[in-house]
Write a structure and sequence with these properties.
49% helix; alpha/beta; 6 helices
């Protein structure tokens, strides 16, 4: 099961979600889940934001990242796509089957994940807390999605 997290620039929210899931995968030995991230409006090769990098460094996991735009190839390699906003989901809706595409707000019921770009460390920490709080629900959905595919 490969989950793709999608935000706008792939330098703040989606790489942080990817790193948080990777941390969870490592700690809980979730060997059947993989994570990746991309942006709907970005170029290849941009580093993650300074505040995102600081949060991930504090997690104590090995994580490197350079931005990548959403592509048909990337979407075809993923089983589940989780967007940070309903608008991101709407942007991808014509490229991804609806049963594979979810906004984070649909999963946790808390609406869109605010973009911290240009904000201070408190804005980024708020996003981290939101993503951490939602991650169990994302993993549950991924596992149930994976089980549904196995029964097809």
């Amino acid at each position: 099961m490969k989950i793709l997290f999608v935000c706008t620039g792939n330098t703040c929210r989606s790489p942080l979600a990817q790193a948080i899931l990777q941390e969870k995968i490592d700690k809980e030995n979730l060997i059947d889940i993989q994570a990746d991230s991309a942006g709907v409006f970005c170029d290849y090769g941009q580093p993650m934001s300074k505040h995102t990098a600081e949060i991930i460094e504090g997690m104590g996991i090995f994580f490197t990242h350079k931005s990548q735009p959403v592509s048909a190839k990337l979407l075809s390699e993923c089983d589940m796509v989780v967007t940070m906003t309903a608008e991101h989901k709407n942007t991808l809706a014509r490229f991804v089957q609806s049963d594979r595409l979810f906004s984070l707000g649909e999963i946790d019921g808390d609406g869109d994940v605010a973009d911290p770009y240009g904000g201070d460390s408190a804005d980024y920490l708020a996003v981290e807390m939101r993503l951490r709080k939602a991650m169990d629900g994302i993993v549950r959905k991924a596992k149930s999605f994976g089980e549904g595919k196995a029964n097809e």
